[in-house]
Design a protein that fits this description.
Elements lengths: L2 H6 L8 E2 L9 E4 L11 E7 L13 E6 L5 E5 L6 E5 L5 E6 L11 E6 L5 E5 L4 E5 L5 E6 L11 E4 L5 E5 L7 E2 L9 E2 L4 E7 L6 E8 L11 H5 L17 E4 L5 E4 L5 E6 L3 E7 L5 E2 L2 H15 L6 H13 L5 E2 L2 E6 L5 E6 L6 E7 L5 E5 L9 E2 L4 E7 L5 E8 L3
Parallel strand pairs: 1-17, 2-21
Antiparallel strand pairs: 3-30, 4-5, 5-6, 6-7, 8-9, 9-10, 10-11, 12-13, 13-16, 14-15, 16-17, 18-19, 19-20, 20-21, 22-23, 24-25, 25-26, 26-27, 28-29, 29-30
Length: about 425
């Protein structure tokens, strides 16, 4: 099975068991104000990684995850085949240690797709082709590989974050990773669509993982089951091409007490869920999603077609891409929320959409108990790729040539 097929089915075969029966506790709904209260924001820039004039180790090829540990070290997972390593960088931007590397030996990676930094400073690295999680201790020494228990022929992996206070991580698959294949992933096997989007706790004790469901987020169906037999068999085209553009996504973060904050609709709605009880609180702001217009659709298609103009690919491939762009479906409204992040002191940052479909707007700051603290105005910041202790934040930036850099800053304003 090739890499692309595996990636498209990251959350493939395997059942999940619910942590408990559905909670009977009533969900508290908190209505937040409609009017923004402006917050001032100031950053202190600390260091950059990955510049063209940097050291050899920081010439990143494919940064998949960045995360901070409790003492302020930044960990960077570079999945590029030339590296396939985790770099631990000290507060001053100097390399402390490396973990992993390409290979099949203990602590080496074949396809490292995600990383989580545990409460004690240990590191869990999800390896798709090894079918498990590499565990490293706080000193960077490899301890063991915990195998995925529920996937005999296809691995279940996606973005992961550490769950504070537990030897566990939280995982939420992207929507296009939700295709489930019956049997052994044959291209001739019918495709079954899931009915929900699980937010899962993955326990890393023992030889195999144990997976429980914290909450079930809403999942947009794609209608793949209605396609003709030829398309059903052509798994290489599915399911990414079938998702309508501007479809709602699940945005999420893990709170310091282990609860999860997430959004799963086009409205401004943030849900707080806890293992064993599910969703216990819902935060709302009274913003209405904007309808997607024909003008928006035409502009987006024109932009995508222009990007094909400079391609050196074959005429056959280009024609196929043009057909895909022209035939692609669009969702009927734009989601208000573009991202959710959680700071180390438990504040929830909610990135709203800007004036254009693909642009960033203000960042609202709320607390899990339903207090609206205010909003950073459009242009003040986007959502960091990682939050750290004492106001540390990291942003991943990509220039016009595709060169990635990591910018580390500290929040010095409220």
């Amino acid at each position: 099975m090739n890499q692309l097929l595996l990636r498209q089915a990251l959350y493939g075969i395997g059942s999940v068991c619910l942590l408990t029966a559905a909670s009977t506790r009533a969900q508290e709904i908190t209505e937040l104000p409609a009017e923004d209260r402006t917050l001032e924001l100031e950053f202190e820039e600390l260091y950059w990684l990955g510049t063209l004039v940097g050291e050899e180790w920081e010439q990143f090829g494919d940064i998949r995850t960045v995360a901070f540990d409790a003492v302020g070290n930044l960990l960077v997972l570079d999945q590029h085949a030339q590296a396939e390593k985790v770099y631990v960088v000290g507060p001053g931007g100097r390399l402390v240690r490396q973990m992993g590397g390409r290979g099949e030996g203990p602590g080496e990676f074949l396809d490292a797709v995600a990383m989580a930094v545990m409460a004690d400073g240990g590191v869990a690295v999800a390896d798709l082709r090894r079918g498990g999680y590499h565990l490293f201790n706080p000193d960077g020494e490899f301890e063991r590989l915990v195998r995925i228990s529920e996937a005999p022929s296809m691995t279940r992996m996606g973005l992961v974050r550490a769950m504070p206070g537990a030897n566990a991580i939280v995982g939420v698959p992207s929507q296009w990773e939700q295709v489930q294949i019956t049997g052994r992933a044959s291209l001739h096997t019918p495709i079954l669509l899931p009915s929900s989007h699980p937010i899962e706790r993955i326990t890393l004790e023992g030889e195999f993982t144990r997976t429980d469901t914290i909450a079930e987020a809403w999942l947009l169906t794609t209608g793949i089951e209605d396609k003709d037999e030829r398309t059903q068999r052509n798994f290489m085209r599915l399911p990414v091409a079938e998702l309508p553009e501007y479809s709602p996504r699940v945005n999420w973060g893990v709170l310091p007490d282990g609860r999860v904050a997430f959004s799963d609709s086009t409205t401004w709605t943030v849900k707080i869920a806890e293992a064993g009880t599910g969703v216990e609180r819902i935060l709302k702001r009274p913003f209405r999603p904007e309808p997607v217009t024909d003008r928006m659709i035409d502009a987006d298609r024109e932009r995508r077609l222009r990007r094909l103009g400079g391609s050196s690919a074959s005429a056959e491939w280009l024609e196929g891409m043009r057909s895909t762009i022209e035939d692609h479906d669009y969702y009927d409204e734009l989601s208000i929320i573009r991202g959710v992040g959680v700071t180390w002191d438990g504040r929830i940052w909610v990135l709203r959409r800007g004036s254009n479909p693909g642009s960033d707007g203000p960042v609202d700051v709320v607390t899990p108990d339903g207090a609206y603290l205010g909003s950073y105005p459009t242009g003040a910041t986007t959502l960091p790729a990682a939050f750290g202790p004492d106001g540390l934040v990291a942003f991943i930036e990509t220039d016009a040539l595709g060169v990635q850099t990591v910018v580390v800053k500290r929040v010095v304003g409220s």
